[in-house]
Amino acid sequence: MDKDDILSDVFSTLRIDGELYFRAVLAGDFSVELPAEHRRIRFHLVHRGRCWIGLSGAEPTPLSEGDLAIVPNGAAQILSADPGTTARPLPEILATGALSDGVLTYGAGDRGATLVCGYCRFDEAIDHPLLTNLPALLVLRPSDLGAEPWTTAALNLLTLEADLDAQGTTGILGRLLEIIFIQAVRRSVAANGRPAGGFVAALADTHLSRALAAVHRAPEKDWTIASLAAEAGMSRAQFAARFASMVGMAPIGYLTAWRLMKARTLLVTSDLAMIEIAERCGYASVPSFSRRFTKAFGMGPGTFRRTAKTV
Which end of the chain is more exposed for a tag (fewer CB within 10 A), N or C? Predict the structure, then answer.
């Protein structure tokens, strides 16, 4: 398994699903505050005009026509015509009836911005380091994507579908948001082309990627730090230190977390017997699997399966 397969495996296990919030037609000296929304990955495509996006503790970032802003962690944010303008909370704006037929209209004046706003939801109980290590804001600008025709094509299609606004557009936009988020994660590298850090950097590391591939290929195997270090071609101590530094957790901690993530997916997406799920995820018995699952997620695997399948 190569690093791209690992990335696909992670996203499949997260069960990411893209949706639209609304189209926003913002005019004049608008400033809209979107409240924090736990763990959702938010998107704002500037379809027409210009605006700014601001997150707490960071300098506002300008957005131009065609730019896509991604906020991976559900943080509160402000979309405005100018930084520093007093923002009005989105719930207050919605209470005035500003949202109609999927279009949010707010403000008055000649200048402004039209945006397509959406989000990706995922299994929020999963704390995979791929998500926790992402920056607070990712911005994709068409002018920066000259060497990446795959991302440019997806971004162009997103804009074209937003223009079309026909039957099926909402579904297509939702799927495109998923694709573009995966592409954005894949390209989250430093300006010099080397991975900036975190899980994506570990996938690019010749040694760590081999150990991660082994875990993802066979999570049921009785891995130890020594056996994973051997897969990586490193000494035990060197491997453990580098893995923890780059991934953000110890190798066996990652193995345990990944097993439980896979278990959650199998419980929802399959009709496998509990013992088979336990064995596929590295547990010799249902009781041992159930104890570990309950400790991690606050409910047993049987309860989780029944609850998740009725939502």
Answer: C
Collapsing DSSP states into helix, strand and coil, what is residue 203?
Answer: helix
Contact 47, 142 (CB under 8 A): no
CATH number of the domain that residue 182 is part of: 2.60.120.10
- Which DSSP helix (H) or strand (E) runs through 48? strand 41-49
The pLDDT tens digits for 77-120 are 999 999 988 999 999 999 999 999 889 999 998 889 999 998 88
- pLDDT over 90 for what percent of the chain? 56
The Cα 251–Cα 238 span in angstroms is: 12
Q: Is residue 195 part of a domain?
A: no
- Which residues make Cβ contacts (< 8 Å) with residue 107, sequence separation at least 6? 26, 27, 28, 29, 30, 81
d(CA 259, CA 288) in angstroms, rounded, equals 13
Together in a domain, 248 and 282: yes
Question: Rounded CA gap, 40 and 124, in Å?
Answer: 8
DSSP designation for 97: T
Is residue 91 located within the same domain as residue 121?
yes
**Nearest to residue 251, comparing CAs of 265, 266, 236, 233?**
236
Together in a domain, 168 and 287: no
Buried b (16+ CB within 10 A) or exposed e, 133-171: bbeebbbbebeebeeeeebbebbeebbebbeeeeeebee
Gap between the Cα atoms of 306 and 139, Å rounded: 39
Q: Give pLDDT tens digits for 21-78.
A: 889 999 999 999 999 987 789 999 999 999 999 998 889 999 999 999 999 888 899 9
- pLDDT tens digits along 16-33: 888 888 899 999 999 999
What is the rounded distance in angstroms from the CA atom of residue 21 to the CA atom of residue 275? 40
